[in-house]
Design brief:
By secondary structure, the chain is of the alpha+beta class. The chain contains eleven helices and 31 strands. 31% of the residues are buried.
């Protein structure tokens, strides 16, 4: 994205691709010459041994860094004296980066804290402001990620990180860049917050449209009767109530084959990552191929109108249990984290998908989910045992048409605002990158301090 702002009068080349030319007077240093790089520490295993916790020393985790917007201002764990003896404390103002789990997240410590070896601390040299280094790290995220190694999970290598070159202006110019970026990114962030709130409200409205239609129907004058469902007191008198398992053929678990080998054993494998969680469909685009022998396909083969149930995965913001509709498109099966449910004749697949969405919003976060080794798992036996309301099939089709029509309007607005958020995020990143690499000269765009003016 173009950033149309003043430039420096003279530039000089660097041999660093991500930096490019820099202003005369700036220098380029290896990161190890810009800051002391200190690996976090917690030598005891297992790390979750309760004897080491609940004391007076803050102990931050990768999740605390991920949640911080710029400064780590809160923590969820503390170490006692025993835990402190096997860890290491870092000073307030240390720039921290996650190198495992959620890789590449950065923040500045707002207090003295310990952290494990999945986090690295950077203590800047006297000639480097930590907030400036924070913005440099933001601009060079792709450079960091290019050094990552992939084993059982993605990791950043500290030795490789230390050799990355960074641009360094004078301290006075760093201060001017910080003033400019703090002001301009604050404006962008405020606008993004407004747009994000609008998206959330539209999504809530979308959820309400679906929930009302699949629990109350379309006729506001319809006679009602007790449902026998604890979370839904009344339903239209012509509807029935029974368990979810009666609406589909038996649950068929997926299969994760081998690497594709380029013959007839290769088949599309739908993963949880392919779920469009808003539209409750399988995402368009390139699909994952796996080598699966014919003997492992059979009942796993998908057909148009099947429901796909997320059984494992999930996260803090997206609990496990999402159901999407498979709309066809060649031979395919599901991965081992996804189960197939084929609707029976009296049930419309699109209606069932909307019903499962309503259940997800009101029930799935409370029932049938277990957490093991950081992964959420759905107890599908108990989930499919849930009671739910069902209108006659003809009314199901009418409800689907109504929901499609109403949500289409909302989806258009949601897509518009989400695209604006993407563009704002791109502009924000571009502005930071241009400022910290000297592609724009912001010195004349900030008010001098009283001392500088004097």
């Amino acid at each position: 994205m173009r950033v149309d702002l003043p430039k420096y009068q003279a530039y000089k080349p660097t041999d660093v691709e991500w930096i490019g030319d820099i202003p005369e007077g700036w220098e380029v240093r290896k990161l190890r010459r810009t800051a002391r790089i200190l690996r976090g520490k917690f030598t005891h295993r297992p790390r979750n041994d309760p004897r080491f916790y609940d004391g007076q020393y803050p102990f931050i985790q990768t999740g605390d860094v991920a949640r911080a917007s710029k400064y780590v201002a809160e923590y969820s764990q503390t170490l006692n004296d025993l835990g402190f003896s096997v860890s290491k404390q870092f000073p307030s103002g240390t720039l921290v980066m996650t190198i495992a789990a959620n890789v590449g997240d950065i923040a500045i410590l707002g207090f003295e804290a310990c952290f494990p070896d999945s986090i690295v601390g950077f203590v800047p040299a006297k000639s480097v402001k930590v907030e400036y280094l924070f913005h440099v790290f933001t601009a060079m995220r792709q450079e960091f990620m290019s050094t990552a190694t992939l084993g059982t999970q993605l990791n950043l290598n500290v030795d490789r990180i230390s050799s990355i070159a960074v641009p360094l202006p004078t301290v006075a110019e760093q201060a001017a860049i910080l003033t400019f970026l703090d002001r301009e990114t604050a404006k962008i962030d405020r606008l993004m917050a407004v747009r994000q709130k609008q998206v959330e409200r539209l999504q809530e409205q979308r959820t309400a449209v679906i929930h009302h239609a699949v629990t109350k129907g379309l006729d506001p004058q319809a006679r009602m009767k007790p449902s026998g469902i604890d979370w839904l007191p009344m339903i239209p008198s012509g509807w029935q109530t029974h368990r979810l398992r009666r609406t589909t053929s038996r649950e068929t678990n997926g299969f994760w084959g081998d690497e594709p080998i380029g013959d007839e054993s290769d088949i599309t494998c739908i993963r949880v990552a392919d779920f469009d969680r808003l539209r409750r469909r399988v995402k368009d685009g390139e699909k994952t191929m796996r080598s699966v022998p014919a003997s492992k396909r059979g009942a796993r083969l998908l057909r148009q109108g099947d429901l796909l149930l997320e059984k494992s995965g999930g996260g803090e913001q997206t609990p496990v249990g999402c159901v999407v509709l498979y709309e066809g498109g060649g031979l395919a099966i599901t991965s081992n984290f996804v189960a197939k449910l084929t609707p029976l004749g009296n049930y419309d697949g699109e209606y069932l998908c909307y019903l499962h969405q309503a259940l997800y919003d009101v029930r799935i976060t409370k029932l049938s989910v277990k957490q093991t080794t950081g992964i959420q798992n759905l107890d599908s036996f108990w989930y499919l045992n849930e009671l739910a309301p069902f209108p006659p099939r003809a009314e199901q089709v009418q409800i689907v048409a109504h929901i499609d029509r109403e949500t289409a309007k909302l989806d258009t607005l949601i897509a518009k605002y989400q695209r604006e958020l993407e563009l704002l995020a791109e502009y924000r990143a571009s502005l930071i990158s241009h400022a910290v690499t000297g592609k724009i000269d912001v010195r004349g765009l900030v008010e001098p301090t009283p001392l500088e003016a004097a």
